Amino acid sequence: MSIATSTSPIQPQPGLLGQTVVVIGGTSGIGLETARRARAEGAKLILAARNPERLEQASRELGTLSTSAFDATNFDRLKSFFDGLPAPIDHVLVTGPGPYYSTLADFDVEKARRDVDAHLFLPMEVARFAAKKVRPGGTLLFMGGTGGRRPAAGALINALTAAMPALTRALALEVAPVRVNLMAAGFVDTPLSGSCSAISWMRDARNSARHSRSARVIGPADIAALAVHLMINTALTGGTYDIDGGEQLVEG
Predict the structure, then answer these.
(1) Which domain holds residue 112?
(2) Alpha-carbon gap, residue 164 to 182, rounded angstroms
(3) Which whole-number Å values give the CA distances from 244 to 48, 161, 189, 205, 226, in the listed order?
């Protein structure tokens, strides 16, 4: 005679339970979606962005610890923000504006300078101000792209695409045992990307991907899943993680 026993499945503990995640650019797109996913994994959230109304809306949705409205490329304000955070925090994700795409003939130096601020100086300043607040094994996580991987017109995007992985590796050495990683995204299907006429050639890449068995279009939820994985997996630092749905495999 056998006795049937019933067992209840063991529920895994949320991967970010009790940890504090700071998202700079956390009111829309990739930042907001990552904040949602981190919250679902048990994280406490601190959000920063430029638009106070969107911050208030995101805070109501997610139940944040706090919010702060400022432009992250104002580095004095950025320093004040990190100085005012309770320590320790666990992870910092920095999103930002999409890269500036321009041919040499249409090149605008002021727009280019803002892009360099957002994609090179901002990660450096975040590392400088945040590292002392992040616990050992925590993460600084930045956004880059794959837009300059193929030779094409657009000197600035090619230069930034090449520079950011090198910057990530160097920062990972300088701020260890805090970890530093870079997510390099291809075309991300968001309302913002769809409205930018300057990157119409990327929409062409998106359409090519839709018709290729090698690729698919990615969205903010795809990047959020990678971001949370990079926060949880403490073996990962100094890396650049491409996330483009196979876009680089598409001929063209």
Answers:
(1) 20-188+220-240
(2) 8
(3) 26, 14, 11, 11, 12
Which whole number is the average pLDDT over 31-49?
97
pTM for this model (two decimals): 0.86
Total structural domains within the chain = 1
pLDDT one-digit tens code per residue, 184-225: 988 877 655 544 444 444 445 445 444 445 567 889 999 999
Contacts with 197 (C-beta within 8 Å, 6 or more apart), sequence order: none
Distances (CA, A) of 110 to 13, 62, 107, 148, 195: 48, 36, 9, 20, 21
Question: How much is the pLDDT for 147?
Answer: 74
Longest distance between any two alpha carbons in the chain, whole Å: 85
SS3 29: helix
Give a yes or no: residue 215 inside a domain. Answer: no
Q: From CA 73, how far away is CA 191, in angstroms rounded?
A: 23
Q: Which residue has the tokens 């959020």?
A: 224
User: Cα separation of 175 and 168, whole Å?
Assistant: 11
Quick check: is 27 in a domain?
yes
In a domain, 198, yes or no: no
CATH of the domain at 30: 3.40.50.720
**pLDDT tens, residue by residue, 110-151:** 999 999 999 999 999 999 999 899 999 999 999 998 877 776
Look up tokens 């990678």; give the residue: 226
The mean pLDDT value of the chain amounts to 86
The Cα–Cα gap between 237 and 137 comes to: 9
